[in-house]
Amino acid sequence: MNILVINAGSSSLKYQLLNPETQQVLAKGLCERIGIDGKFTYKPEGKQAVKEADVAMPTHSEAIQTVLNALVDPANGVIGSMKEIDAVGHRVVHGGEKFAKSVLITDEVMAAIEECNPLAPLHNPANIIGIKACQALMPGTPMVAVFDTAFHQTMPSVAYTYALPYEYYEQDKVRRYGFHGTSHKYVSQRAAAMLGKPIEELKLISCHLGNGSSVTAIDGGKSVDTSMGFTPLAGLPMGTRAGDIDAGIMEYLMNKYGYDIKEMLNILNKKSGVQGISGVSSDFRDLEKAKSEGNQRAALALDVFHYSVKKLIGSYAAVMGGVDAVIFTAGVGENGAGDRKAIVSGLEFMGIKIDDEKNGKRGEEIDISAQDATVRTLVIPTNEELMIALDTAELAK
Q: Where do the annotations place substrate binding (predicted)?
């Protein structure tokens, strides 16, 4: 079974064609600058990547048609015809309270996704455009929506309720939703396999750390708390996002500098986080380099990030009444040996202790726990595309 996975952004589109049963990736790539001066990257299995500039992609429809043409191309294609694509899995960022799992896309589902647009105005409209473009070009092919928020719908009300007048939840659905759910779900399942135990018996803390970061408490395979909130702006300080702050800061800065809410949110989303503290970069590799050269603000930015993750690990262990394993995933989590060491340092009292030699590995699935650790520390490269493909295949059958 071949599944095409689509992750559509406002001016970009990531794609993979893979077989979820064998986990073989047949081809993958990226359409960029849609509506501007389209750039197309296509990497078939076992061959060199093909990169093209100035590809006519005025809309997502042309971008997806470009992808389909490449997949069946006589020279570099990986399938004989589009009939060999059994289903399409679409990443959808926000499903609100309506979707606790992935679903086959129907007219009713599309309407419900559109109702969630105000909750994710930068993401959901682009996801919808990608779905509609595929529907037009591939009529009759099953389409599945896989939601970033769905995994977190198992959170209890005590975890998702904000201390606001309750009518804002009842009328406007203002609550904690959480994101990166597909990633947290995938790595928790892999953790159970690595530990050789049923996921229903495990208490896990999943740290998805990258330019966007979130930590999730997973008890018995279910999300019971997570750091991102009503929007992906909440929780940890990230590459350029502030994370949790005192809301009164917004009023103070807006009054002092005359910012409107749009400018204030732009600062919180795009000028804050480790970039805002360091003044150097949102890339953790750049921060490590600057720190090694004596840049104190870069060092502070990293310290604030590590401290914030450490606090969440401790609080989530308390929420679950213990923890069996801590998982590191995503760009920083998978590759940042120094970041992992700084985060778990001081948590020895919880039974968390890592082996420095094992921790030196990058980007591979490995247990980096010290021999005398009672809580395992795992590094698991995330694979959201595979998780989307697995869900899609199951529903398409």
A: 91
Stretch 358-371: mean pLDDT, rounded? 95
SS3 string, the chain, reads CCEEEEEECCCCEEEEEEECCCCEEEEEEEEECCCCCCEEEEEECCCCCEEECCCCCCCHHHHHHHHHHHHCCCCCCCCCCHHHCCEEEEEECCCCCCCCCCEECCHHHHHHHHHCHHHCCCCHHHHHHHHHHHHHHCCCCCEEEEECCHHHHHCCHHHHCCCCCCHHHHHHCCCCCCCCHHHHHHHHHHHHHHHCCCHHHCEEEEEECCCCCEEEEEECCEEEEECCCCCCCCCCCCCCCCCCCCCHHHHHHHHHHCCCHHHHHHHHHHCCHHHHHHCCCCCHHHHHHHHHCCCHHHHHHHHHHHHHHHHHHHHHHHHHCCCCEEEEEHHHHHHCHHHHHHHHCCCHHHCECECHHHHCCCCCCEECECCCCCEEEEECCCCHHHHHHHHHHHHHC
332 labelled ligand-binding: yes
pLDDT digits (tens, 9 = 90+) for 159-185: 999 999 999 999 999 999 999 999 999
Instruction: List the catalytic residues.
Output: 148
Annotated binding residue at 91? yes
Q: Is residue 73 a known part of a binding site?
A: no
